[in-house]
Design a protein that fits this description.
By secondary structure, the chain is α/β, with parallel strands linked by helices. It is built from 13 helices and eleven strands. The protein has two domains: 142 residues, no CATH class; 166 residues, no CATH class.
């Protein structure tokens, strides 16, 4: 069937300062066909391919094609001269040319690219500016793409459990994090921040990054069992840091990551000598170690976690007594 040369949509006219914009809903196949991403590109489709991430767009397309995807946020576009944009009925209806250079995308580039790749068409909200100059478009593009703040990773991890979007590792780490942040005997009680990054506290992102590399050491053990092993280790390590007058450094992301990286070496020594993981057993192994550790290296924030771990490991070897 031959496509219409012009398309019409019911719309609402909004005035914001000197700007006139229209809100409407539009089928994604028409929106993708009428939109492009840069006035500098001769070929709108090639412009999508060059400027945007096809992998990200394909994920959006797959999300739509599954049939459960919903994209409620508006795509923001600017009507171009080629659109021959027209208001009908006092701004209650808009119409424009159905061609590839009608609408310049100001926000939602990857979503529109995803619509182009999707097999399924859905209706989405669209905001259309009309009468913008190139300067207006450029400034709006910069404002939209620099003043929006992404949701913190800490909050996304915190709500993934509610959304049932967690991987097996994320679910395990989430449960372990919650033990450390809520149990009355936790050595990190009051030092954890679940949904945001807070100075002096261990965020969920920092915790996951630090603990994920060592969860293989617990094989098929439950998160509660992992807590019972890690808690006395962290308690003993925090006690050693206190003697070095570095107790506040346990929440530093670099230090905490190095401490977790160091855990398997210490745990192996504890297991070989005592056969059980208790604060007293960890103390026996770590007290000689802390006599060799440099407080300056712990206090200095410029060290990478790998460099600090190497210092821990070397100090541990030189402190070893049969």
């Amino acid at each position: 069937m031959e496509k219409k040369k012009r398309v019409k949509f019911s719309a609402n006219l909004i005035r914001q300062g000197k700007h006139r914009l229209f809100t409407c809903t539009m089928p994604t196949d028409i929106l993708a066909r009428c939109s492009f991403v840069s006035t500098r590109d001769e070929d709108p489709k090639e412009g999508f391919q060059r400027l945007l991430d096809k992998k990200r767009a394909q994920e959006i397309a797959d999300y739509i094609d599954i049939g459960f995807g919903t994209i409620p946020s508006s795509i923001v576009v600017s009507a171009q001269t080629e659109a021959r944009f027209k208001e009908v009925g006092g701004g209650k209806t808009i119409e424009f040319e159905n061609n590839q250079r009608s609408l310049l995308i100001l926000d939602g580039q990857h979503r529109v690219f995803g619509f182009l790749l999707a097999k399924t068409a859905v209706r989405v909200p669209v905001v259309i500016y009309n009468g913008l100059t190139r300067v207006d478009e450029s400034r709006l593009f910069i404002d939209i793409n620099t003043k929006q703040r992404p949701v913190p990773n800490e909050l996304l991890l915190d709500i993934k459990n509610l959304a049932q979007y967690e991987s097996n590792d994320e679910a395990y780490l989430n449960e372990l994090f919650n033990f450390f942040s809520s149990k009355s005997n936790s050595p990190l009680l009051g030092l954890m921040s679940a949904s945001k990054r807070t100075s002096g506290k261990i965020s969920r992102v920092s915790f996951n990054t630090s603990v994920k590399p060592i969860i293989g050491a617990f094989l098929d053990r439950e998160a509660s069992q992992a807590y019972q092993t890690l808690a006395p280790y962290i308690e003993s390590f925090a006690s050693g840091l206190k003697k070095l007058k570095c107790e506040n450094r346990i929440t530093n992301p670099t230090v905490f990551r190095a401490v977790m990286m160091f855990f398997p070496e210490v745990a192996q020594r504890v297991k070989d000598k005592f056969g059980k993981y208790t604060p007293k057993a960890f103390d026996e192994i770590l007290i000689p170690f802390f006599s060799k550790v440099s407080p300056a290296k712990i206090r200095k924030s410029g060290y990478s976690h790998k460099e600090l771990y190497d210092h821990f490991s070397m100090s541990f070897r030189t402190a070893f007594i049969i």
